[in-house]
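Form 12-C: Joint structure prediction
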Amino acid sequence: MRFFEEFEVGERRQIGAHTFTADQIKRFASAYDPQPFHTNEEAAAKSHFGQLCASGWHTLAVWMRLNVRGMQDEVRRMQAVGAPQAKVGPSPGFDQLKWLRPVYAGDTITYESEVVATRESRSRPGWGLVSMRTIGRNQSGEEAISFTAHVFIERRAVASAPALEEG
Amino acid sequence: MRFFEEFEVGERRQIGAHTFTADQIKRFASAYDPQPFHTNEEAAAKSHFGQLCASGWHTLAVWMRLNVRGMQDEVRRMQAVGAPQAKVGPSPGFDQLKWLRPVYAGDTITYESEVVATRESRSRPGWGLVSMRTIGRNQSGEEAISFTAHVFIERRAVASAPALEEG
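Section 2 - Result
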């Protein structure tokens, strides 16, 4: 991964796209969000959603998978050219998570992130905090989900950051 | 479900507890968060976490399942006594989602919610917005995850709330 200093406010990154099939929607929801409008077409037709739609947590979990794959691809690309790599710390959390529109079976959500803030960590020398606003849009370009994620990224200035203390 | 008017700021509810096994952690992470410290014990031992721990999204998805089951139990209890029930609308989102401590394999997380705000919806007559702060604590009583969820709940004052317009 790139170092903290290389993240610039305003830069954007395509995270990827995913089409949510009815089978996937029902499988995720059966395990983690078994509300009838996520697990059964007929019940969904009678609900306020009007048709089968994905659990909001499913739309987030898919973003996470695409995001992790993107990071792993970047790590491999940098390894291939022998570039020094920053450590990525844990995410301290998320803000302003909004489900703006239902994600119906068959919808394709495309996720894009923008760096909205960077700051050196006061509590964790050697680390910086990067905040990224992510928006997931459906095939009509409508915003379906948005959130701001924060993540610790190692600073270039120090050779090796001290281990992060959890909690 | 109870109507909006019956939610009071300060009331608490036990959502349930779950023990995260290594198998569950690896299975969820393989599908949605395939970072090595969530999918492989040896890689986790070398990471900043020090041992296998659950994806933050896994700790949320499990809360959602327990939460949905609790709501469904309440609906059934109210049906059994013929009580009128409020409709529950979609969640407009979450705030202040924090992963405060890793959830290691074998940890048991107990989730508890507290109503922190209630307000009548301006944009959606017949509906109220209930905000609930949830904390998940491990078996030592330490906070591992916390977040504030918002959800639309039908008001009692009107016989039947108009359907919610999504988006």
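Section 3 - Comments
The helical segments of chain A are 22-32, 36-39, 41-46, 56-80. The beta strands of chain A are 12-19, 93-99, 108-120, 127-137, 143-154.
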